[in-house]
Amino acid sequence: MDKQRDFVLRTIEERGIKFIRLWFTDVVGSLKSVAIAPAEVEGAFAEGLGFDGSAIEGFTRAYEADMLAHPDPTTFQILPWRGEIDPTARMFCDITTPDGQPANSDPRNVLKRTLAKAADRGFTFYTHPEIEFYLLKSSKFGKKGPEPVDSAGFFDNVPGGTAHDFRRRSVRMLEDLGISVEFSHHEAGPGQNEIDLRYADALTTADNIMTFRTVIKEVAIEQGVYATFMPKPLSGHPGSGMHTHLSLFEGDTNVFYEAGGTYQLSKIGRHFVAGLLRHAPEITAVTNQFVNSYKRLWGGDEAPSFVTWGHNNRSALVRVPLYKPNKAQSARVEYRAIDSAANPYLAYSLLLAAGLKGIEEGYELPPEAEDNVWELSDSERRALGYNQLPASLDHAVSLMEDSELVAETLGEQVFNYVLLNKRREWSEYRAQVTPYELESNLEIL
Fold first, then answer.
1. Is 381 known as a binding-site position?
2. Residue 130 counted as an annotated binding residue
3. Is 246 known as a binding-site position?
4. Is 247 labeled as ligand-binding?
5. Which of 116, 266, 369, 390 has the fewest CB within 10 Å, making it most exposed?
6. Is the CB of residue 48 less than 8 Å from the CB of residue 70?
7. pTM of the model
């Protein structure tokens, strides 16, 4: 760590960095930032930077407001969109109380705690997200709703199009920040795009997702358009998911791989998937945390609504992708419910906790779903034992409230705040009179 600190201090001096932004997230997953001058960095490393935690969503109560942000030197990167005028860098922070204890309310610390539990069992948790988002002409909209930048579809090539230039610029900027991109392409919805990040350990991935969202927003501003990670911004078009591929390693060995297993998935992998399935409904208030998230989950277009697993089944909640011959290290499972607006630190904590619970308790994997689950009738799904994910935020919060797994993983403070925040959101949503009601009812009632 001392070498990393020395590298940061030396780079700041050699590159003429004028400002260093210290980043962290609140419980909902909004990025927070405070800029310090180069002369303050050494002190921030040694003592942390004090701030009023009661002003941050979900961080602390007013009578215990003092918090410290400790920059993590391993996350130091120069921000490419700031250019050569007043060069600016950033570091993610770990939040502590004044006595040096990790803050229970820090989402990054929640993930670190869960990763430490996995490490105690010899596991390292890797994740690989496929992040979808929409490009709109503006954040303003009229009666017709948001206007996408194009009318293209899945994998379409749009020569000279906004999305094509946008993705190229975004990928180059991400690479400049040390974030490796695997794929980028136009998605199925008009103006919808997807960029897939290369797999990394879950903490690095969560940091990368927060950086990714900022990059996408900055490039959109630069190009005169608007980027949104809202789960379902357009009626009648696909929502934006963040399908995430998950794997566990012991040292250099992928423990999800077994040469003779079904789809080469090991016994540990099967227990992990069973854990994801059993606990999926109670973690959905975090992986899909907004009222709008349920418009995606229950709007069709390949979004999973039922608790099933499959191999090449795109309607399943958990998918075991095609095995690549001679690539045992690539064995993984894909969780398809999580959306692009999730707090990645909390969402990945719960996915890992659910999978580990399946391994610890030896959960048995139910039969594979081979049919398109959406095309089955309710009675057919019941006969096959396919439970559903929550149908609304209200339903999801009720299931989360009774979950020992979620309470234990998030910790009391974060758990209670998420419940409070989401109940408030549902209450405000329920009180609204929507355009749909006015259009359907006003003139005929």
1. no
2. yes
3. yes
4. yes
5. 116
6. yes
7. 0.94
- Is there a binding annotation on residue 64? no
At 64-78, the pLDDT tens digits run 467 899 999 999 999
Supply the pLDDT for residue 155: 53
pLDDT higher than 70, residue 323: no
d(CA 232, CA 180): 27
182 known ligand binder: yes
Residue 61 backbone dihedrals phi, psi, to 5 degrees: -85, 160
Q: Are 27 and 59 in contact (CB under 8 A)?
A: yes
Long-range contacts, stretch 2-10, CB < 8 angstroms, 24+ apart: 4/73, 4/74, 4/76, 5/45, 5/73, 7/73, 7/76, 8/41, 8/45, 8/73, 8/76, 8/91, 9/41, 9/42
**Residue 239: what pLDDT?**
95
Domains of the chain plus CATH, in order, are 1-100 (3.10.20.70), 112-439 (3.30.590.10)
Answer whether residue 278 shows pLDDT above 90. yes
The answer to whether 305 and 298 are in contact (CB under 8 A) is: yes
pLDDT, position 325: 66
Q: Residue 185 has what pLDDT?
A: 85
With 0-12 / 13-18 / 19 or more C-beta atoms within 10 angstroms meaning exposed / middle / buried, residue 423 is middle
Q: Would you say 84 is a known binding-site residue? A: no
State the first-to-last Cα distance of the chain, in angstroms, to the nearest integer. 69
The answer to whether 438 is annotated as binding is no
Q: Greater confidence, 263 or 355? A: 355
- Band (pLDDT 50/70/90 cuts) for residue 2 is confident
Q: Is 334 annotated to bind ligand?
A: yes
185 is annotated as contributing to ligand binding: no
Helices 412-430, 267-287: axis angle to 10 degrees equals 50
What's the average model confidence in pLDDT over 337-350? Answer: 97
Per-residue pLDDT, 63: 40
